[in-house]
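Hey team,

Sharing the Potassium inwardly rectifying channel subfamily J member 8 run so nobody has to redo it. Sequence (419 residues) first:
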Amino acid sequence: MLARKSIIPEEFGLPGLASRMPRKPVFRDRVNKARFIAKNGSCNLAHKNIREQGRFLQDVFTTLVDLKWRFTLVIFTTTFVSSWLLFAMSWWLVAFAHGDLDPLRQNGTHCVTDVKSFTSAFLFSIEVQVTIGFGGRMITEQCPTAITVLILQNIVGLIINAVMLGCIFMKTAQSNRRAETLIFSRHAVIAVRNNRLCFMIRIGDLRKSMIIGATVRLQVVRKTTTPEGEMIPIHQIDVQTESAVASNSLFLLAPLIICHVIDKNSPLYDLSAMELQCSDLEVIVILEGVVETTGITTQARTSYVSEEIQWGHRFVPIVTEEEGVYSVDYSKFGNTVRVATPRCSARELDEKPSILIQTLQKSELSHQNSLRKRNSMRRNNSMRKGAGSSGSLRRNNSGLAKVQFFTPSEGGQNLNGVT
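Structure output:
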């Protein structure tokens, strides 16, 4: 039995229409690789299989500073309590050896007065180390051993206090705290500046206290393979910025746009707009400087992956002069606007400079056309408003009622009607 033919011809069916529709080029999605530097500046790196753990104990102070606050407080609390208990045991042994725990012994022969149990020895240990001195218990000159224990406890207590105060000061004054007020734009942009294709970011400082000797370094991190077949998972390539004069120092008084000219020495030289979307590169930005108020060197970091780089955009101005004062509007810090930019790579622009000229000409023509359309729309709106007002005036005139005037005459009264 033959199959029944469809009423709709095959060329007009869904498979036929789908085969004739133009298809857009399909590009393979970029491999979702891990970021080397997070947006907040933290390094996305895990250290595993470290066999020589004792190296961390050789630098105890740095280890304590690097620990989290809860671990630091637990360590110092445990250290204080342990020292109090240790010296309480020492005072109890001194009293026991001297016979002070005997209730029949007279008070004048005690090494430490009123130390009759381990609890009283523990309280005396706390009084000695933290220099409270309630006055109920005190050492006498009867025992040289007690004097030696007193000196040792004072020295140990001073060392613990010095380490604790230094560690707390360093943790509260760490350089990364100052970096919280150093901000970067959410996106990076690539646009034409001074007839060259440039990679640009914006940096700013929210505090009035300045960063002295601020420097900015850019690096491109990508996975590369050498001609010998060696695979380098994190290949760091330095990127030169436009402000590379003298020591590359920046006067970070107001937000600045850091510009990198994409030339033949740039790792972005061969990337076009389409190739950038499929690449796995990561641009790291490092801002360093000395804090003006504390003199501590600080460092702020961030990174931009290919999805966070906007091709054909530039940053909007945010610094204006208002009543003799320069004002910065941080609500527009990361705002960008689309501009005319060739979609080809910087290498193609160097080989064919006419591409840039044609792009700028097309942008100028489109801008002029938009201005003409805008002006024509304004004229049409004004003409419509004028036509509407004249029509309403005619309607008002046609609606006037006829008015009659009566004038006296010799033979009577004549009626004259005037409209």
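The chain has three domains: 58-172, 178-345, 352-382.

Ping me if you want the raw files.
A.
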